[in-house]
Amino acid sequence: MSQDDQDYVLGTNREELERLGLQHRAWRPTVLDCWRRAGITQGSRVLDVGAGPGYATVDLAEIVGPAGQVIAVERSQRFVEAAREASRSRGLENVQVHELDLMTDPLPAESMDAVWCRWVASFVASPAILVEKLAAAIRSGGVAIFHEYIDYGAWRLAPRSLLIEEFVQHVMASWREAGGEPDIALELPALLNAAGFRLREAVPRTFCVHPGDPLWQWPASFIDVNLKRLLELGRVTESWAASVRHELEEREADGITLMVTPLVLEIVAERR
């Protein structure tokens, strides 16, 4: 296992990189609408926090255009290389990608128009430090945009599956053992207020999907990839993981199962 994989509770291997791409495509229409409402447009200067392999980075760079700028920060060397390659392959010259640790390193940005932060606050050791650093990087009147979970345990199947619910609890426990908090959006409004932000919007986001819906593949792929991750972490047994896979296969074939995805809170907060 690489150092990146050891440091990231969800791993950074090829399967996780591909899963992140699927996840971004599933959420892309929602994200593009959020960015538009938040005011990201041609000429904007945007900080992409915890940018991963750069899927959102390149979208942002194309939106802000040559007159704008995207500064992406990411801790994983593997993801940084992927983000830089994605920018090069699209000929995007308005992107900077920096390898750094959000908790210990200064952010290479100031007076930004917007900051984009998706599923990052739930994994850092101190969300308060993260929010304070973001506040320092944003100009007055600029915005911080978050997609973070507010009720991860809302991830359920209908009819109910106790095995899938047990899987969800294992995932949440693994995040907490690594120092994160899956339901961090419960804390964000107070942290943002203390750091000098005014809450502009807070919108719950979830999907209810069936196996024939392309969006089904987002949570289904997470189950597949993270069963392997839970095995690597020694949290579950091979037989239990096989039982979860079999359960999901049966539900995908039964024609009646619905899946409700974990509840995300979409936040747009303005720097005072």
Could you walk me through the main structural features you see in this protein, from its secondary elements to its overall organization?
The structure is a single chain. This protein starts with a helix and ends with a strand. It is built from 9 helices and 10 strands. The protein has helices spanning 3-7, 14-38, 55-64, 77-89, 127-137, 162-177, 188-194, 217-232, 238-254; strands at 45-49, 69-74, 95-99, 112-118, 138-151, 156-158, 197-205, 208-209, 258-260, 263-271. It has one domain (3-271): Vaccinia Virus protein VP39 (Rossmann fold), CATH 3.40.50.150. It has a 7-stranded mixed beta sheet with strand order 3-2-1-4-5-10-7, with helices on both faces. A 3-stranded antiparallel beta sheet has the order 6-9-8, with no helix packed on it. It is α/β, with parallel strands linked by helices and 272 residues long.
